């Protein structure tokens, strides 16, 4: 009896959160051949990455333009590799700009058109927040992708009305946190302050000076029982290590795989806008969200974005749970004001109760997102 052809997936992740989810999807599909681009988690799961994932970790209009040459080169390399590998599915996780550019190039090339006629599918994980800005992107996604895996049920109609097969799978980080065996440490006289500058070099370079000043100001104000800790990721770890060498208040650096232990034991977190704020919301940790981008990018964002906040928990609950210091407001004075408020028990408790009210929004009851995505792909190909 002839063996069935093994399913081949070209998987692409451009950021740390996508790399974590990508690795989980790979582990759910041990009999599938994976090729593509990923970080340390996907490499540990068996992927031989085409090039370093850090080359794709760029965000912001100006920032992307500054890295245009590298990104163009990586797009061309990826298209060539997909055509050579002839996968059954191209599965892209976030990094929508890169994903769309790759797919558009494949569709333009005769070899790519041949693969599509033979059944090549393009699936994407993480729906763009069209409910926050540029709703027209939903229609564009429907023209590019064959299937979209969204995190929340309310996102689905935005895309299905344009004919895009869309499946809600829950938020992937909630699965990791709910099933984590990490426990909260015994009480210590030291209160941990987590400083999280993000995973992209552009945001790290903007936020680390602010975090340095914050640590110094808090210490000079008499908060001597605070322990400052920075979780690092592979894309920026060396830069962070070198940058903090000369801090007068030395922070402890912990690797990304230890971050949940850090977060569970955090007193107050000061973080870049992004996935980490959702992780901390799920753990009910009082947090201040800070984001500082290129002024031009910030200005354009103010013109286009329809929601009041950038933190996902604020958006989902439609109220200001986490204070946000964005753009010109991302300075030490503003952060200190919010920080001092969060040392007041009544203020802390009120925030924690609001975070608990969002628990039901994160995780779907019928399985982990990685398992749901893997099962959906298998069914598409009768596996």
How does this model look, in words?
With 383 residues, the protein is α/β, with parallel strands linked by helices. 46% of the residues lie in helices and 16% in strands. It is built from 19 helices and 12 strands. The strands form 2 sheets. A 6-stranded parallel β-sheet has the order 2-1-3-4-5-6, with helices on both faces. A 6-stranded parallel β-sheet has the order 9-8-7-10-11-12, sandwiched between helices. α8 links the parallel β5 and β6 (165-168). α1 (16-28) crosses α19. The protein is globular and about 70 Å long. The model is unreliable at 59-66 and 299-304 (pLDDT under 50).
Number of strands: 12
- Return the average pLDDT rounded to an integer: 87
Low-confidence stretches: 59-66, 299-304
> Based on CA inertia axes, which overall geometry fits?
globular
How would you classify the helix and strand content by structural class? alpha/beta
- How widely separated are the two ends? 17 Å
Keywords:
single chain, 383 residues, alpha/beta, six-stranded parallel sheet, 19 helices, globular
Summarize the structure.
The protein has 383 residues and is α/β, with parallel strands linked by helices. It is 46% helix and 16% strand.
Topology:
Elements: E1 8-13, H1 16-28, E2 33-37, H2 40-44, H3 61-66, H4 68-85, E3 89-93, H5 96-108, H6 110-117, E4 121-125, H7 137-144, E5 147-150, H8 156-160, E6 165-168, H9 172-178, E7 191-196, H10 201-220, E8 226-232, H11 237-243, E9 252-255, H12 259-264, E10 266-272, H13 275-282, E11 287-291, H14 295-304, H15 312-317, E12 324-326, H16 332-341, H17 345-356, H18 359-362, H19 369-380
Parallel strand pairs: 1-2, 1-3, 3-4, 4-5, 5-6, 7-8, 7-10, 8-9, 10-11, 11-12
Helix pairs in contact: 1-19, 4-5, 5-6
């Amino acid at each position: 009896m002839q063996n069935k052809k093994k399913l081949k997936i070209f998987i692409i992740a451009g950021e740390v959160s996508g790399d974590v989810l990508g690795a989980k999807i790979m582990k759910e599909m041990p009999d599938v051949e994976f090729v593509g681009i990923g970080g340390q988690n996907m490499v540990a799961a068996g992927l031989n990455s085409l090039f370093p994932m850090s080359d794709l970790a760029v965000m912001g209009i100006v920032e992307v333009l500054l890295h245009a040459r590298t990104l163009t080169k990586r797009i061309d390399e990826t298209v060539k590799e997909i055509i050579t590998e002839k996968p059954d599915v191209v599965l892209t996780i976030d990094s929508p700009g890169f994903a769309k550019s790759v797919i558009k190039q494949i569709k333009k090339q005769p070899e790519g058109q041949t693969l599509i006629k033979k059944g090549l599918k393009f699936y994407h994980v993480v729906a763009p927040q069209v409910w926050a800005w540029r709703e027209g992107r939903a229609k564009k996604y429907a023209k590019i992708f064959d299937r979209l895996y969204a995190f929340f049920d309310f996102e689905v109609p935005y895309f299905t009305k344009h004919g895009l097969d869309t499946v809600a799978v829950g938020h992937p980080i909630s699965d990791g946190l709910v099933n984590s065996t990490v426990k909260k440490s015994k009480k210590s006289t030291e209160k941990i302050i987590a400083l999280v500058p993000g995973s992209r070099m552009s945001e790290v370079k903007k936020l680390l000076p602010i975090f340095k000043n914050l640590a110094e100001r808090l210490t000079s104000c008499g908060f001597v029982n605070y322990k400052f800790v920075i979780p690092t990721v592979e894309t920026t770890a060396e830069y962070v290590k070198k940058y903090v060498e000369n801090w007068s208040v030395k922070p402890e650096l912990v690797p990304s795989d230890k971050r949940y232990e850090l977060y569970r034991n955090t007193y107050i977190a000061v973080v870049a806008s992004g996935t980490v704020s959702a992780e901390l919301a799920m753990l009910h940790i009082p947090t201040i969200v800070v984001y500082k981008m290129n002024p031009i990018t910030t200005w354009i964002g103010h013109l286009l974005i329809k929601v009041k906040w950038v933190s996902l928990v604020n958006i989902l609950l439609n109220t200001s749970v986490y204070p946000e210091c964005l753009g010109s407001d991302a300075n030490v004075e503003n952060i200190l004001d919010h920080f001092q408020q969060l040392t007041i028990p009544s203020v802390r408790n009120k925030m924690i109760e609001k975070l608990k009210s969002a628990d039901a929004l994160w995780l779907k009851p019928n399985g982990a997102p990685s398992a749901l995505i893997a099962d959906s792909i298998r069914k598409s190909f009768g596996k």
